[in-house]
Write a structure and sequence with these properties.
Strand 1 and strand 2 (144-145) form a beta hairpin. By secondary structure, this protein is mainly alpha-helical. It is globular and about 55 Å long. It has one domain. The protein is 75% helix and 2% strand. It is built from ten helices and two strands, in the order H-H-H-H-H-H-H-E-E-H-H-H. Helix 2 (21-42) runs antiparallel to helix 7 (121-137).
């Protein structure tokens, strides 16, 4: 975290709120939900741009460019989301996480309304944009770096923490617990996203919207 010469009480509170475990868990739930939702509805990933890039070239090298270009919009949206998050952080500083969460709530509501009328790649674009802003703005949990939009890094840290803890570093039990919980909740989010995308598509984005509203309340404590 970048050091600041003079930090106000409000800024300290904002930093503590952003790193709270309950916020990280809510965001991990949303992260798993986003990927499952966009995969079931549109056959692409909102978060996992590695998968989108691989599938782009799998279909491209097979000559199926009509299918391959389907994976480009979420990658473009992800890039734009990271750029906007960086600009929000620069403009709003200590209020950046709150502003980002508000933007994400509004965008998810718009995406859900669009889905009610028509299901198209505008849904994917909006959700990938939200995922990128979320991942760019919320990067720490209790002082440790994490990501809320995939499990690979979190799973590695959970395993490394467990190994360190059982090797004598008792202080690592907490860290292993945190990253294990993030992986589990991400999976629960994916299960919920897949189920509702199939069975209640017109209300499917309700859970992540609710999760974001709770995050906003926690940030404003």
């Amino acid at each position: 975290m970048t050091s600041i010469p003079s930090v106000s009480v409000e800024q300290k509170r904002a930093v503590r709120a952003e790193e709270a475990l309950e916020i990280a868990l809510l965001l991990a739930f949303s992260g798993g939900y986003f990927d499952a939702y966009t995969w079931v509805v549109h056959g692409v990933m909102a978060n996992t741009q590695t998968a989108n890039l691989v599938l782009l070239w799998v279909h491209g090298t097979a000559g199926d460019w009509g299918r391959a270009v389907h994976f480009i919009p979420p990658m473009i949206a992800f890039v734009l989301g990271v750029v906007v998050a960086a600009l929000v952080r620069r403009m709003f500083q200590d209020r950046a996480s709150t502003i980002t969460t508000i933007i994400n709530i509004v965008l998810l509501i718009i995406v859900q309304l669009i889905h009610i009328r028509v299901s198209n790649l505008a849904n994917v674009f909006g959700i990938a944009f939200v995922a990128a802003m979320q991942a760019s703005m919320f990067t720490m949990v209790e002082g440790a770096a994490y990501t809320s939009i995939m499990v690979t890094g979190n799973l590695r840290l959970a395993i490394e923490g467990a190994v360190s803890a059982f090797s004598g570093r008792r202080d690592m039990f907490r860290r292993s617990y945190i990253f294990t919980a993030l992986c589990v909740v991400f999976g629960l989010g994916a299960a919920g996203g897949a189920f509702l995308a199939k069975n209640l598509p017109y209300l499917a984005l309700g859970p992540p919207i609710i999760a974001m509203v709770v995050v906003l309340r926690l940030l404003r404590r």
